[in-house]
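Hi there, hope your week has been kind to you so far. Thanks so much in advance, here it is:
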Amino acid sequence: MAEGKSFAVTERTVPTRARERASYDEATVHAILDEGYVCHLGFVRDGAPVVLPTLYGRVGDRLYVHGSTGSRPLRMAGGRSADPGLAVCVTVTHVDGLVLARSAFHHSINYRSVVVHGTAHQVTDEDEKKSALDALVDHVLPGRAADSRPANAKELAATAVLRLDLREVSAKVRTGGPNDEPEDISLPHWSGVLPVAAAYGAPIPADDLAPTIAAPDYLSAR
């Protein structure tokens, strides 16, 4: 079996602790990104760090985030081909379990995370911008973009989209139980993992929704 594609290892993508948990495998990175839809976008403004939660969408080896044309990171990224863009760090994390050890020191969590370093650029091509916005909607709920009204000219003018290529990327994963010290095994404290999982509830229709409009299949499949 041929080896899967991997991202290049760089100084910024090598963790300082638990390096054995790091992965640069493209399929692993894509799977972690595709399971979530909220990222944390970090950048520097006026010499101070800023981290903002925002929605994202992936198209191949490219991430898109969107916001108002007046938002700071989107204005800082520029809108011309000659603009240098905005240096950013994007993170996505899933918590899979609470790891309870016999000692407070060894408590941990099971998780899957991706960290992306790079330079974000504002999308100026109209076709790419429309495709990116569709991808953002479908990333949150596949099938929704085709089942909603596309943005009109006024809405598109008020919306900016950032593009970040996946080049300097790493994943980090922790699985398994607690790492108790041998001398703590006999202590009378429960030790193990409390699994954590996200769940969808039943769809709640809008108050003004016509009673003849049924919930779409892509909602009942969640």
Q: What stands out?
A: The first helix runs from residue 26 to 35. The chain has a mean pLDDT of 90.
